[in-house]
Amino acid sequence: MTCHPPGGAAVAAHPVDEKLPALKMATSGLQHVAAMYAGVVAPPLIVGAAIGLSATELTFLTGACLFTAGLATFLQTLGFWKIGARLPFVNGVTFAGVAPMTAVVAATEDKSDALPIIFGAVIVAGLLGFVAAPFFSKAIRFFPPVVTGSVITLIGVSLLPVAFGWAQGPDPQAEDYGSTTYLTLAGLTLLIVLLLRRFTRGFVKQIAVLIGLVVGTLVAIPFGVTDFGPVADADVVGFPTPFHFGAPQFQLAAILSLCVVMVVSMTESTADMLALGEIVERPADEKTIAAGLRADTLGSALSPLFNGFMCSAFAQNIGLVAMTRIRSRYVVATGGGFLVLMGLCPMAASLIAVVPRPVLGGAGIVLFGSVAASGIQTLVRAGLDKDNNVLIVAVSLAVGIIPITAPEFYHSFPETAKIVLDSGISTGCVTAVVLNLLFNHLGKGREAQDVTHPMEAGEEIAAVR
User: Do you know which NCBIfam families this protein is assigned to (predicted)?
Assistant: First the structure.
């Protein structure tokens, strides 16, 4: 795609703004949907089960979340006015809200009021976040490569346990969880993706993940792992009727809890935008981040209208962009279109649900590992020959990995605090920003010492010896 400025030569459009052929657009968009589907449907399934919704109502709630994820993705990728980062971002239900939403359910005596209370809190948190977006975006100055590289690496590392969990099976409580059958299917899917990436070219190479998911699903059929029941039971047409579960209710405790989640979500979205900007070679500046946060928060505020939850950028799709190098935001917008259709057609949504979790896990290892690799690439440019930067990376990664390696580390803290502390991306991001201010901004007269290895002594120490 090219444009012709008056009196000038044709100028190629940036890959982010490139419109691909229809088939390539559709298949690549479907890859994004497959990569994030499990993440979108998990929160409504968990919250709906806590409330005690019937199977029909649970299906409705899940479809509503798919529908609103598609709308939020449109806002982010296509945008209008000063809303939307206009980057290849998939938006969907943030998992950070699951714990406080289930807490709201537990504290609500009449369970039929739980969803209206949650929806009211999400609306308020979304509107407040929308107002705060331009102020929040000014934090961009505190995200040099040493910070963004650490955060991008943490995003990938934090997502890998999700892939490992998928690889072991759909139900952690089941006796066959982590069986050799599940792990073999995950390994086979991973192998298919790797072989396609290594020995094919062009379009086939770019949709290697989608092919791996399809082949892995077909291979899983003889093992009885692929379940086509959801397709047979699903309706062909369904629409998320506005306020299906009742008009929103506004309770202060729930609002405060979801506002904390909104801050966490905005922090992670900022990190995600910085990561994606690096990957697509269109760095996210203050203006882009403000527009992206407006899309996140507006999508969240509108989501309860159609019975959806708080929306945020999906980090797992960054890995897909990094691996395929398909950077067009219109591809992701096409994925958003699929999400809307799936919300309107439960049968279509059920087709993605057929893909077994172990198959998703095998593909996820490649996708999420690609995000971590992108972070390492950014760190290479961060000046790790400086002792200060080595310390920033070392401590921020260590703090960010705590929730992964020691999930009960913050068990004695209040529930509100754990919303932030249990997010390794958020804690690692805050740690990196604070340490960068401490070491590279405060007292700048003292230069950082060069080191060739983190464990080697600086020149001053060596001189004393």
Answer: ncs2, NCS2_1, pbuX
Residues 273 and 87 sit within 8 Å (Cβ to Cβ): yes
Q: What pTM did the predictor assign? A: 0.66
Neighbours of 228 (CB within 10 A): 12
Q: How far apart are CA 440 and CA 418, in angstroms?
A: 29
CA distance 424 to 222: 39
Displacement of CA 126 from its chain's centroid (Å): 18
Per-residue buried b or exposed e for 22-36, using 16+ beta carbons within 10 Å of the residue's own CB: eebbbbbbbbbbbbb
CB 373 within 8 A of CB 155: no
* Residue linked to tokens 């949709």: 207
Round to whole Å and give the CA distance between 346 and 114: 24
Q: Which residues of the chain have pLDDT under 70?
A: 1-12, 38-39, 42, 45-46, 49, 55, 95-96, 99, 140, 202-203, 206, 229-235, 316, 348-353, 416, 419-420, 443-465
Name, in order, each residue with C-beta under 8 angstroms of 239's C-beta and a sequence gap of 6 or more: 344
Sign of CA dihedral 280, 378, 161, 95: negative
Element counts in the chain: helices (H) and strands (E): 19, 4
